[in-house]
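Hey team,

Filing this mostly as a record. A colleague (T.K.) asked me to run one chain through the structure pipeline before their review meeting, and I want the input and output archived in the tracker in case anyone asks later how it was produced. No errors, nothing strange. Just documentation.

Input sequence:
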Amino acid sequence: MDGLAAQMAGDNPEDLAMVEGRHFWKMTGSGNDFVFIDGRSEPAGEFEGAAVIQRTCARGTGVGADGLVILTRPRSAAADIELTYFNADGTLADLCGNATLCTASLAAKLGAVDPSGFAIETGTGVLRARIRAGVPEFDLPEIREAEADVAAIERGGDEERLGFAVAGIPHVVIRVPDVALCDVLGRGRYVRNHGSLEAGANVNFVSRDESGWHIRTFERGVEGETLACGTGSVATAILLRLWGEAGDDVELETASGARLGIRSVRGSDGSWTASLRGEGRLVFEGVLRDL
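Output structure:
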C-alpha cells in the first residue's frame, strides 16, 4: 500500500465510530500542540486515516491540535519507542521537532524510557533523546542540505535574506526587520507553494531586537501559522550561522512566547549536527467520544 492509500485507508464512518472510548493525551511544545495516542498495546490503525485525524485535530469541533502522534513499540532494536506523526490535514510527516520533544517528555512520564538517555524511532531514523534538568532534548539526523541564498524565490518587500535547509523536512528561512509586521499567512502561503519547491516547505520568518531572536512559521500540513516549529527553529539557527549572524548556540522566541534552544555544529564536510531543546508539556488527558 503506498503512502496516500495508507493515509486514506481509514476514511470511513466505521473508523470514526471505532475511536470512541480511546484514551488520549494532549501535549504542547512551545504552543505547537498535539494529540497523542498510545498504540503500544492496542492497535491504532484507525488513527492513520485522514478523516479521523482531521476530526480529532479540528479546533472547535474536535480535541484541537496541529497534529496527531501515534506511539508504538519500535521496529528497530536500536530504539526504545517509535512515533508516527501526522499533520492536522492527515498527511504523514517524517519529522516534527516539537512533537519529538513532546514524545520524549510523555515517554518518560509513562515510564517507557530511561529519562537520562534513550532513542526514538521517527520517519527520519533513530534519534537520541534525553531529559535534562526536567526539559526534553533530542539530536536531529545529520543535515546536509542548507543554502544561504535561494535565487529561485524572489525576495519580497523589506526581506533581507532568503535561505533553505532540510532539517528533517524542508524549510525556507526569511530574514526580516520585524516578524511582528510580517504577512505570515499571505507571504508564507505563496512561498510554501512556490514552484521551485518540489515538496513545498515550511516558511520561517526571523528577526532580532534588543531581547533576542524571534521566529514565526507558516506550516505546511496545517496550512497556516503555528505558534512554534521545532525543525523550523533548527533550520533557522543554521541559516543564521551561514549568514554570520549567530554562533553555535541560538535561542529563538516563538510566537507563543516560549523559547527553543538550538545547538548546531558544522562538520568538515559541510554537513550539520544539531540538537533541539524545549518544552514538552502535558496539558490534559481524556477519552474520545463523538467525533
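Quick notes for T.K.: The chain has two domains: 3-139+280-287, 146-270. The CA atoms of residues 81 and 112 lie 7 Å apart.
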